[in-house]
TrEMBL record:
Residues 18-78 form the HTH tetR-type domain. The keyword DNA-binding applies. Residues 41-60 bind DNA. It comes from the Bacteria. This is TetR family transcriptional regulator. Pfam families: TetR_C_11, TetR_N. The keyword Cell cycle does not apply. It comes from Streptomyces monashensis. Keywords: DNA-binding, Transcription, Transcription regulation. PANTHER family: HTH-TYPE TRANSCRIPTIONAL REGULATOR RUTR, TETR-FAMILY TRANSCRIPTIONAL REGULATOR. PROSITE patterns: HTH_TETR_2 (PS50977).
Amino acid sequence: MRIEGADPGTVRPGGRTARVRASVLQAAGDALAEHGFAGLDLADIARRAEVGKTTVYRRWGTVTILVADLLTDMAEQSLPRTETGSLLGDLKANARLVQRTLADPRQGALFKAVIAAATCEAKTAEALHRFYDIRVKEWAPCVQQAIDRGEVPEGTDVHEVIRAVSAPLYYRLLTSSGGLDEAAADQAAEAAVAAARAGAYLRGDEGHA
């Protein structure tokens, strides 16, 4: 059965079809990390996954759609948010999750390749935006809980606080040859909390009252 409006490769199946999808996405991630977006080839991915080329071409059709499906799967498989009882504790958990992902040789290379591809491939850009939208929405409730506890001002943009945690870590990934460690993650979380408490992320005119 095909869901109305769904792109090929985006319907979550079960049974053997699910195993084929998992194998192909694993192979696509490996190839993307090794060769970048420009080096992706559906036939090579089928060979790596030990799946028939016809199956891969029929199901995904293009490498862009396959990468979009890979990002969807990564967002859905990512660890759920942590609740520590404090905004700083929650955001440190978030930052360390991002740090571990980006510091991993395979995952870091994969994200660099996807970000590069998103600058010139509209479908990849859409998939990347959807990936981060899912992750930001997953973690945003911890900021709302902090508002409810009185840790940060009413009117704080919960999504912007979460984005502020990840942004410096991605910046380091793309601009620095140095390692990305837990100290950098903790610093990003601490800076986001300090800014949120100071009212830096108040929505609209609320920041100018």
